[in-house]
Backbone:
């Protein structure tokens, strides 16, 4: 098989690494990839906004399957256009990608299908949104409706913060994404993520994970794309997985199919767990980054037939086998991230770190004359396995100690909750 993988982050390096191990693979192309994917895939530079040029490439190279990593091309309808050209694609249609592209779309689905989630109001003007927040009281959560690069959510501890966040949205801080606003109930509990491979009707559970969104140790400081993650999520036991599937995922898939927009691809459910049971915080229509890195580390099955089954529309006979080991990834980011940071610094010490327990996945890197340079905010995802969270954590940080990159930093406490549970 020839496969084209779309994306250039740590998630895509992990997917490329796993796809490259498939006995079914002939050639793997990646658009655009990074300094780490060069070892496992051929880099191609396609204009992703121009779907016809992507289609032409697929026809020329006899691509059998396109795997879309990030959400933006999905929300822009890349999967629809590929399908119309009879090219098999892993990733949902534009209509189904609204599960990530519009908070209000997902909340309305939850209403229709009685999926447990935070109570909410949906607003198209600041006056009504402010009035609703005042009536509900703080803490309360304000969300720009559309895609806002992970910055559109404010967990407001005071009404003043909530009102300011509402004004920001309607004043255009997130462009069109903030023209509509969801104001919702603050949920407390422990957050976890669960992934499902979906064929439009059926969901195959595809692992659990927890991430660390805040930039600083102790989960402090501003939100980021994710500074580390681990899998499995100890808080999600087998009984809870079944409850999540039965009360959240299956009704959501049924509701999507009934609305004429069956969901095919990976559904990433962000969940809040407390004594009253799991509640949906949000859906994403792609793998998490860096959650994907820990999932790929633990996946023992061949990934390619699983992705192909989603694309073909039948995962009902598929099975995913997982290593019983724990996997943990620590993100190394450029100094200054998630605010401004410099690009171009050289990273040394990467050679010889990868073995059967450790993999350094690249995110924002590029290769320049045989050296690896930082080219983004999140730069490396140093990933390790172990018999326990503590062992995986020790291995990941031991690898980090060998990396020579003075312009980078990482959190020192990734996995603290899971390690605490063990001790
Ligand atoms: P989202 O972009 O929807 O994932 O939100 C980003 C983060 O905001 C989540 O991972 C949660 O930590 C937090 N969050 C979102 N919605 C809520 C909520 N209703 N209650 C508490 N925290 C929330
Ligand atoms: N790490 C969170 C995300 O990919 O959305």
Residues:
């Amino acid at each position: 098989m020839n496969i084209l993988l779309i994306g250039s982050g740590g998630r895509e390096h992990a997917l490329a690494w796993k796809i490259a191990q498939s006995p079914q693979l002939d050639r793997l192309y990646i658009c655009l990839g990074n300094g780490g994917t060069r070892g496992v895939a051929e880099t191609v530079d396609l204009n992703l906004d121009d779907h016809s040029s992507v289609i032409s490439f697929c026809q020329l190279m006899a691509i059998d399957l396109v795997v879309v990593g990030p959400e933006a091309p999905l929300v822009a309808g890349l999967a629809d256009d590929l399908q119309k050209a009879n090219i098999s694609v892993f990733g949902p249609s534009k209509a189904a990608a609204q599960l990530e592209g519009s908070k209000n779309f997902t909340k309305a689905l939850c209403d229709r299908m009685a999926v447990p989630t935070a109570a909410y109001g949906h607003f198209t003007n600041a006056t009504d949104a402010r009035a609703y927040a005042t009536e509900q009281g703080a803490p309360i959560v304000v969300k720009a409706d559309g895609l806002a690069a992970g910055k559109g959510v404010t967990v407001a501890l005071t009404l003043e913060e909530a009102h300011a966040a509402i004004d920001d949205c309607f004043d255009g801080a997130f462009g069109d994404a903030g023209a509509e606003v969801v104001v919702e109930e603050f949920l407390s509990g422990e957050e976890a993520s669960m992934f499902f491979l979906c064929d439009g009707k059926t969901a195959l559970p595809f692992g659990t994970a927890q991430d660390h969104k805040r930039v600083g140790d102790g989960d402090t400081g501003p939100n980021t794309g994710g500074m580390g993650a681990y899998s499995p999520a100890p808080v999600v036991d087998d009984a809870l997985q079944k409850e999540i599937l039965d009360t959240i995922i299956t009704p959501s898939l049924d509701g999507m199919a009934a609305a004429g927009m069956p969901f095919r691809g990976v559904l990433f459910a962000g969940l809040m767990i407390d004594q009253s049971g799991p509640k949906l915080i949000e859906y994403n229509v792609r793998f998490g980054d860096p959650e994907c890195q820990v999932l790929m580390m633990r996946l023992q099955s061949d990934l390619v037939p699983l992705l192909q089954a989603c694309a073909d529309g039948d995962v009902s006979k598929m099975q995913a086998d997982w290593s019983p080991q724990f996997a943990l990834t620590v993100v190394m980011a450029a100094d200054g991230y998630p605010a401004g940071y410099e690009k171009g610094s050289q990273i040394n010490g990467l050679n010889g770190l990868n073995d059967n327990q450790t993999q350094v996945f690249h995110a924002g890197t590029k290769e320049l004359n045989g050296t690896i340079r930082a080219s983004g905010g999140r730069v490396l995802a140093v990933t390790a396995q172990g018999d326990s969270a503590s062992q995986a954590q020790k291995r990941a940080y031991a690898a980090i100690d060998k990396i020579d990159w003075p312009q980078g930093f990482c959190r020192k406490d990734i996995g603290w909750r899971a390690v605490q549970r063990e001790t």
Summary: The chain has a mean pLDDT of 97. The domain at 119-185 is CATH 3.30.1490.20 (Dna Ligase; domain 1).
